[in-house]
Amino acid sequence: MAKNQLRQISDFQGSSNYVVSRELMNAVNVAVALEKPLLIKGEPGTGKTMLAEAISQSMEKELIIWNIKSTTKAQEGLYVYDTVQRLYDSQFGEGDVSDIKKYIKLGKLGEAFTSEKQVVLLIDEIDKADLEFPNDLLWELDKMEYHIPETKETIRAIHRPIVIITSNAEKELPDAFLRRCIFHYIEFPDQEKMEEIVRVHYPDIEKKLLHNAMETFYRIRNMKEIQKKPSTSELLDWLQALVLSGVSVERITTEMPFIGVLLKKNQDIEALFNVKSRNTSSSGYGRWR
């Protein structure tokens, strides 16, 4: 069975707007074949969330997204029992309050389990939740079922969803949880891979503009003074701003227009121009090194 599944998805190569590496492609293939969650780590802006969208598009499956926040509890992904609405209905005689089932609302995990067709379930930024959150999902993700005590009902997955879990590595995840996942770390793209990504979004971008923008972008990323390094999504936004403004190509490396699209911290912008000022005055050139 696993071999058949591997053959079925061996042609997954990203989507029309997502460039995937061979290593990441293999990780997706193995996770689907072994029916295990795929845990994706990497710095913000490396396309972790977009991977789930690409898998959904490529395999023509519905995508269900569970966005995790610091206050999110595992229970919310299974179901929510609306006790407030039931109390309200009992006070004002609205309907049959003895039917508890109608006050049970399935969460994102519950929706994925009860879908008539296999879906892709994205559990996005799992490391934002408290430390117990991953452990609280171990049984459900492993056995693909959970119990609702209020209705004495057990929800079992009709089809095992393809589970993609992302993490920005803000917190370490429990070992027991990690053992149940296939893991892949998305490295930040090098210049060659980044150009490939950019041309997926902007196929007609001027070569000289792209060259100068990429040179400036990677120079900024390599500065040790920069605290929040610009990501792929910020580069794409910056390129769009440069194209729409019709800015001179030469100005990109000398003046760095619209720098607030790349850098989002005042300290980083100050650090950048301090370095640029020092290099320009010491070299005597109008172009920073």
Question: How would you summarize what this structure contains?
Answer:
It contains 15 helices and nine strands. It is an alpha/beta fold.
Folded structure, characterized:
- The chain has 289 residues and is of the alpha/beta class.
- The chain is 48% helix and 13% strand.
- It contains 15 helices and nine strands.
- The strands form three sheets. A five-stranded parallel beta sheet has the order 2-5-8-1-9, with helices on both faces. Strands 3-4 form a two-stranded antiparallel ribbon.
- Strand 6 and strand 7 (153-156) form a beta hairpin.
Q: What is the strand and helix layout of this fold?
A:
Elements: H1 2-9, H2 22-34, E1 38-41, H3 48-59, E2 63-67, H4 74-78, E3 79-81, H5 83-92, E4 104-106, H6 108-114, E5 120-124, H7 132-136, H8 138-143, E6 145-148, E7 153-156, E8 162-167, H9 175-179, E9 182-185, H10 191-201, H11 207-221, H12 232-245, H13 249-254, H14 259-262, H15 266-283
Helix pairs in contact: 1-2, 11-12
Category by helix and strand content: alpha/beta
With strands numbered from the N-terminus, the spatial order across the biggest sheet is: 2-5-8-1-9
Quaternary structure classification:
single chain
Please tell me the overall pLDDT: 88
Highlighted features:
alpha/beta, 13% strand, 289 residues, disordered C terminus, 2 domains, 5-stranded parallel β-sheet, single chain, Rossmann fold
